[in-house]
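Researcher: Structure for this, please.
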Amino acid sequence: MKKEEFISKLRFCLSDLPMEDLDQIIDFYQELIFDGIEQGYTEEEILRRFDAPEEVARQIRAEYGGLVVYTAKGKSKEEKYEYGPKDMIHTVKVQTENLRIHIRTVEDGPVKVYFKPREGQDIVTCKEDNGVFSFEHKSKGSSPLSWLNFFIDYNLLVLELPCSFAGNLWIRTTNASIKGSGMMNLAQAEIISSNGKIKLENSKIERLRIKSNNAKIEIANVAGETLEAASGNGIITARDCRFTEQLTMETQNGAVTGKNLIGDHIVMNTFNGLITACVIGNQQDYNLDCCTMNGFCNIESVRSPERTKDLSARTHNGRIQIDFTM
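Model: Predicted structure, token format:
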């Protein structure tokens, strides 16, 4: 069975679900397959790990079962609670174990966390204290669908933020991916996953820190003052990004790539991978520090007091290709 056939059958089997929930599920499985391919597996090998679409749909109905809202006001398996604007919130903290996290924005409304716990397997704590809204999840044991953890965790948590939210965001999960879009007013954000892909796009965050120990980091159309992106053993990519003070991408055993980058101080480092980038700006404005031990470098290092910007690109075992465009 090919990916298209699996997705089509799964969509048909779940066609009676609300469109928003259905789109999230389909998006999850498409990303699951893509992540497997990135790890070197074929479509056929990945799909052999799945049950038939009909059985997957049955499992989803039993395990997914809908979304429940948790807020500082309380929680319920039967009713939905909403976090109201009674107190000013300047910080949102979400810490989970083995939960895939989606961050999405809405035009207006309170901060919400959507998650359905599994009875006897998930422990949830939710509170509000001095303007800090905190959601903490702990897992008691492995999921009955733990075979999915080989690629990405099955369970899903959705964090919903109003577009007007201009505070701080702190997200941490283990063994699962984090995906966010549309956050245009954040002062600070720290997004960390121990072994899952992080994807962030179409956002404006003044000070942004992203870390994934063993997975890819993908950033697209994001702007701010400072970016620190670090991965122990994964690829880091940035596209159409502008960070005025500092733009740093560092990994140990993966490639670092950038397209249409804007920044006065750019750092791209890896140990066992290539570095490629297209920087928007005049090369003559940059002090350049570019070095590879075992590969080709298309640009020479140069330093001059007349140059007010800096670009550093260093690797031990890979090629360096840096291009400038006006």
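Researcher: Any notable elements?
Model: Residues 71-85, 143-154 have pLDDT under 50 and may be disordered. The first strand starts at residue 69 and ends at 70.
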